[in-house]
Amino acid sequence: ETGMVTIDPGYKNTGSCESAVTFLDGEKGILRYRGYSIEELAEKADFLEVAYLLIFGELPNKAQLQKFHNDIKEESQVDEEMKKILDGFPKSAHPMGVLSSLTSALVAFNPTSVDVSSETAMYNSIVRILAKFPVLVAWTLRKKKGLPLDYGDDSLGYVENIHKMMFKRPNQEYKKDPIAIDALDKLLILHADHEQNCSTSTVRIVGSSHAGLFASLSAGISALWGPLHGGANQAVLEMLEAIEADGGDTKKYMAKAKDKDDPFRLMGFGHRVYKNFDPRAKIIKKAADDVLGNLGIQDPILDIAKGLEKEALEDSYFVDRKLYPNVDFYSGIIYRALGIPTEMFTVMFALGRLPGWIAQWREMRLRKEPIGRPRQVYIGENLRSFVPLEKR
Ligand code: SDX
Question: Which residues does the Swiss-Prot or TrEMBL record annotate as the active site (predicted)?
């Protein structure tokens, strides 16, 4: 029996599915969504367009994009009862835990979202979550800041509306901030999909039991929370702030990262697939310079990040292991410049990854993939007889 099975820890050399959504080449540092390069999409597309592309496979024309956005606006109300669940959390609750719970709770207010056997039911569920998740993200942020919960404004673009719900001050008219919205739009595009990463594989395997889209996404949010995955963007900022507090002593943290007895890793470095520069990191590094320049912000954390990157790229430990900055290394610096609290960084990753998770879940369901159920190699006890309590 065990001869049949070979174990591949972390599935480093296992393909879980065939997919047409995203293409990665780790050696060449290539990333494409439905065949379009990440460089072109980050430069020329907007996030809602990219969401449509990932989910339905083609760039939308004007009418298709307009209908998609209108259908989303129709669904942008979140049941007021959901606020009772949000209120149940202490202010200290981590936003990723809050959002994973609220996303799962949405099923109770949208019961039809479970049965997605028809394409129409699938579309309705997809539009519903694309509409409501940004509201939940904004509510979670405002709850943490002690601000009144806000609602969307149908006259705004999709990302503009996200920015408005997150940042509109209660006693002021919302004023558009094109620099911030453009940076946010680009960051969301760069995070939108990444083939079979940990959280996407989680969405697929939960979805393979036909648990429904919202339940699958809730599981994906939990997987993304981990500091080895999406949680890294928060861990990078905490690391950079610790280095700054330590007088900018990057050498001490480099030594810790190389010390096998020290669990500390250089957060924002390394990648399972990219054995070269993460193409997203390059784009985000430039965007960080642009945003801070445009906003006139001098952030010492950015200088520390650049210093750390330079040292690591010249250090044989990192070079030999092909450890380069990944998408999480610079993104937190932009989020910080946009006034997003560190604890919300991974939530912003989830907001960007939502269309990718949806696209991969939809592909898995349309291809009628079987339920995920791997085997194992048993290494436990052989058969033994029960011993009554009085004899143990
Ligand atoms: C994301 O999969 C995706 O696509 C993810 C993502 C996406 O878009 O979905 O790209 C988003 O999660 C990016 C990664 C964010 N995580 C981090 O920045 C956390 C720090 N990085 C590491 O934990 C690590 O690099 C991983 C988790 C990203 C990848 O780990 P692997 O592929 O399992 O590699 P490994 O742990 O086997 O490491 C290989 C070697 C080991 O040393 P040796 O045992 O060979 O001597 O490299 C070392 C590791 O100790 N190493 C590091 C390191 N990363 C790997 N040493 C110090 N610092 C690091 N960051």
Answer: 271, 328
Ligand 1 pocket at CB < 6 A: 10, 194, 197, 228-230, 232, 257, 265-273, 321, 323, 326-328
d(CA 105, CA 88): 13
CA–chain centroid gap for 309, Å, is: 23
Q: How many other C-beta atoms lie within 10 A of the C-beta of residue 201?
A: 18
Mean predicted lDDT score pLDDT of the chain: 95
- Paired tokens of 175: 């004023």
The model's pTM is 0.95
Q: Which two tokens stand for residue 194?
A: 């990444």
Per-residue DSSP letter, 260: T
CA distance 157 to 46: 10
8 A C-beta contact, residue 153 and residue 174: yes
Give the distance from CA 85 to its chain's centroid: 23
Please calculate the CA angle 208-214-215 and round it to the nearest 5 degrees. Answer: 55
Ligand 1 geometric centre to CA of 384 (Å): 41
Q: Which residues contact 12 (CB under 8 A, 6 or more apart)?
A: 272
Interatomic CA distance for residues 114 and 42, integer angstroms: 33
Between the CA of 45 and the centroid of ligand 1 the distance, in Å, is: 30
The yes-or-no answer on residue 328 being catalytic is: yes
Task: Give φ, ψ of 77 to 5 degrees.
Answer: -85, 135
Interatomic CA distance for residues 134 and 147, integer angstroms:
16
Helix, strand, coil fractions of the chain, as percent rounded to 5:
60, 5, 40
Residues in CB range of 146: below 8 A, 6 or more apart: 91
ipTM reported for the complex, 2 dp = 0.97
Whole-angstrom Cα distance, residue 104 to residue 129? 11
Active-site annotation holder among 271, 278, 289, 320: 271
Strands of the sheet containing 22-25, edge to edge, are 22-25, 30-33, 36-37
Dihedral through CA 107, CA 120, CA 217, CA 57, nearest 10? -170
Selecting among 46, 193, 278, 328, the annotated active-site residue is: 328
Using CA atoms, how far apart are residues 158 and 38, in angstroms rounded to an integer? 20
